[in-house]
């Protein structure tokens, strides 16, 4: 199985601060079709996960543009440019190039 | 687009349960679908996938015990859970596939306990 390692596990931020979350894969996520199936999700307390980013860097429909994704191969990053209160929750990276696996999660909390 | 899971509940170890996911707002038959679960207080864990042509893939932890299926006429996805174990206790979500993972249901709770 592909292991996704997310860091940090807990992220404390103030409103307006820019933050980044890292997701490192145990194998390359570049598929033979040329796509890299790496996603980012936010799960707010008591809610289902919400897709933020797909195929590494594509913003999901209705997702604010303060969210951005980057990376390639085995190293990926989610950046939030100016945290807002509604961004608090747990962030997960996920890969679907191989049998889908999720990172362990990063909890974003207010400092 | 809406996905609504049902069929969860409390079940004894070794018993069976069948979950349903009713889909609306899109052409269900054109999309692969996933089941993903989340144990209480834990992270997300992919369970199974069924393609639009009904090909299936399973996580090792459930292979041979769980069966994913679909009824395109009813716009419904299913997950048959057999030989349940305590470690199968989780919220089970269905999610739209096709490389999208853009829509998820609200989840249904399955508790395996004697």
List the helices and strands and how they pair.
The complex is a heterodimer of chains A (111) and B (114).
Chain A: E1 4-7, E2 10-13, E3 19-25, E4 38-43, E5 50-54, E6 58-59, E7 67-72, E8 75-80, E9 89-95, E10 101-102, E11 106-110
Chain B: E1 2-6, E2 9-11, E3 17-24, E4 33-38, E5 44-50, E6 56-58, E7 66-71, E8 76-81, E9 90-96, E10 108-112
Parallel strand pairs in B: 2-10
Antiparallel strand pairs in B: 1-3, 3-8, 4-5, 4-9, 5-6, 7-8, 9-10
Short descriptors:
heterodimer, A: 111 residues, mainly beta, 7-stranded mixed β-sheet, 4-stranded antiparallel β-sheet, globular, B: 114 residues
Give a short synopsis of this structure.
The complex is a heterodimer of chains A (about 110) and B (about 110). Chain A has about 110 residues and is mostly beta strands.
Describe this structure in words.
The complex is a heterodimer of chains A (111) and B (114). With 111 residues, chain A is mainly beta. Chain A contains no helices and eleven strands. In chain A, the strands form two sheets. In chain A, strands 2, 4, 5, 6, 9, 10 and 11 form a seven-stranded mixed beta sheet that branches. In chain A, strands 1-3-8-7 form a four-stranded antiparallel beta sheet, with no helix packed on it. Chain A is globular and about 40 Å long. The model of chain A has no long low-confidence stretch (mean pLDDT 97). In chain B, the strands form two sheets. Chain B has a six-stranded mixed beta sheet, with no helix packed on it. A four-stranded antiparallel beta sheet of chain B has the order 1-3-8-7, with no helix packed on it. In chain B, 36% of the residues are buried. The model of chain B has no long low-confidence stretch (mean pLDDT 97). Chain A binds chain B through residues 1, 35, 37, 39, 41, 43, 48-51, 54-55, 60-61, 92, 94, 96, 99-105, and chain B through 34, 36, 43-46, 49, 57, 59-60, 93, 99-102, 104-107.
């Amino acid at each position: 199985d592909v292991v996704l390692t997310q860091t940090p596990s807990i992220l404390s931020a103030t409103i307006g601060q820019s933050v980044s979350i890292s997701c490192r894969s145990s194998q390359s996520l570049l598929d033979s079709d040329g796509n890299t199936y790496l996603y980012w999700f936010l799960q707010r307390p008591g809610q289902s996960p919400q897709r933020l980013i797909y195929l590494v860097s594509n913003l999901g429909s209705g997702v604010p543009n303060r969210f951005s994704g980057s990376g390639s191969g085995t190293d990926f990053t989610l950046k939030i440019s100016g945290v807002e209160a509604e961004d608090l929750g747990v962030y997960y990276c996920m890969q679907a190039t191989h049998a889908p696996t999720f990172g362990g999660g990063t909890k974003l909390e207010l400092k | 687009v809406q996905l609504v899971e049902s069929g969860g509940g409390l079940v004894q170890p070794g018993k069976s349960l069948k979950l349903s996911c009713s889909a609306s707002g899109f052409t269900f038959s054109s999309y692969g679908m996933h089941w993903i679960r989340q144990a209480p207080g834990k992270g997300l864990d992919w369970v199974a996938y069924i393609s639009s042509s009904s090909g299936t893939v399973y996580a090792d932890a459930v292979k041979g015990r769980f069966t994913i299926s679909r009824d395109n006429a009813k716009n419904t996805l299913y997950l048959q859970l057999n030989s349940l174990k305590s470690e199968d206790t989780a919220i089970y979500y269905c999610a739209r596939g096709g490389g999208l993972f853009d829509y998820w249901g609200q989840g249904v709770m399955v508790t395996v306990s004697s």
